[in-house]
Amino acid sequence: MYSQNNMSFMPEEDLLYTILADMKRTVREYTTATTESNCPSVRQMFTDLTNDTLRLQGDLYHLMSQNNMYTAPTKALRIDLDKQIQEARKTQQECQQFIQQKSSSAGVYGQPMHQQGQSTHQSNPYYM
To answer: Looking at the record's lineage, which domain of life comes first (predicted)?
Structure first.
């Protein structure tokens, strides 16, 4: 209908921006589904869907950027990025320590076993 009169539903830039925003939302939904999946095959399916959608979103962003339809945000300061990375690493390490502490201190029927001399600080080989 619209194409016959050379009219479009909405301007191409607005349509592409809407699709881009929907892809971002879809990635968030797939990520949530991945983290809440108990079945390994379902988890893998949502991981694959997330990755495919991220690739499509990146391609669309690149196309829009090349055509001056999307302005990239300003560059972040390295010090701000480093601070965020350090905070994320600290949080991840604390979570790993908590999980390890809870899984190693639970005895029979969930009763804590008192372990003397065991340090609660565990080094993480993946992070500084």
So the answer is: Bacteria
**Rounded distance between C-alpha atoms, residue 116 and residue 122, angstroms:** 16
d(CA 78, CA 80): 5
Q: What token pair was written down for 67?
A: 């055509």
User: In this structure, is the dihedral angle defined by the CA atoms of residues 34, 39, 44 and 49, taken in order, positive or negative?
Assistant: negative
Residue found under tokens 């990375």: 85
pLDDT tens digits, one per residue of 1-48: 444 445 667 888 889 999 999 999 999 999 999 999 999 999 999 999
The domain segmentation of the chain, as residue ranges, is 1-72, 77-128
Contacts of 81 (CB under 8 A, 6+ apart): none
Q: Tell me the whole-structure pTM to 2 decimals.
A: 0.57
The structure tokens 């797939």 sit at: 30
